[in-house]
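Cross-check.
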Amino acid sequence: MPVVNSPMGGSFAFPQSLRARDQLLTGKTSVGARAFCGFQGCFFRDRRMDTARIAVVGAGLMGLSTAVCIPTLVPRCSVTVIADKFTPDTTSDVAAGILIPHAYPDTPVHKQKQWFRETFDHLFAIANSAEAGDAGVYLVSGWQIFRSMPTEEVPFWADVVLGFRKMTEAELKKFPQHVFGQAFTTLKCEGPVYLPWLEKRVKRSGGLMVPQRIEDLWELHPSFDIVVNCSGLGSRQLAGDSTIFPVRGQVLKVQAPWLKHFIRDGSGLTYIYPGISNVTLGGTRQKGDWNLSPDAEISRDIFSRCCALEPSLHRACDIREKVGLRPSRPGIRLQKELLAQDSRRLPVVHHYGHGSGGFSMHWGTALEAARLVNECAQALRSPAPKSNL
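Predicted model, tokenized:
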């Protein structure tokens, strides 16, 4: 069976003089970057001088959603998505895609709630449109259950999802090992459907898709004016980020079409998420594990845990194993950086590190990344101050 991987997603303003820019540099410089295959002449020969040429590195959920947002917020731009892997071969294709936020301790709660609300509202509009089927976005109801009382009975996102309430005693009888539960309706994105739909939206707005592995962001200079780094785990190399690490996730995709409601243990380790074409059973969170091969013993454990919550799963068939590496770090990186190499400058916007909360936050953080790109574009278009000498 196929195993998939992902290439994978405080700021400052860019000053106008090179001397002032140098005073604010925080990023590493790189040397020996190779040319980007002559794309400067190939793609942009006839471009207007004030067109901002933007490269998005990474074609997972963060890269594609950012590429869709950029043209709506950045006037007069061109967008090119560059990656060594596209759907269906990204981690986003493996993810269950349900909107239940993952907490980021290093990020203020009000910011997390903003990103989640923007994402939920955006996808809710899609779910209520004629595009819902093509996008693979739909509403799903279910339960989150706890073996002991949670620290917060009402999470910060309770008023964003629909119909959030405490489970009744009658409902909890279905889960005799659990003492508390929450019932609500949220949204689910089918990654293998949603990502191709995002690709079409990028192309519809004039964007390009380029299959190529990038070893150094300087490869994109001078063909592009601004680079958006959505390379996820690839940022260890591309951005020199030693804080990002994989959290291995193994899931099962099974046929159990009679299941209509999701069930999620409060720990987030055991879950049952019905989808359009299959049901996702999970899962694992193995920090620092780069292994992309399915583990048969783990699969048996996942199946056993899920059957304990929903005994009818014993009748599930066509069981397939999937593995993905979640790009995790202490907090999502949404930041501008100005790379310097001799007299050259390359503005970069970083957008990665969502871990297991990617689908829940992706549109909100993509909008913020696009706003940072617009700040970079405005700075590049502003004339350098004239010398008083």
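The chain has a mean pLDDT of 88. The chain is about 30% helix and 30% strand. Passed to J.P. for a second look.
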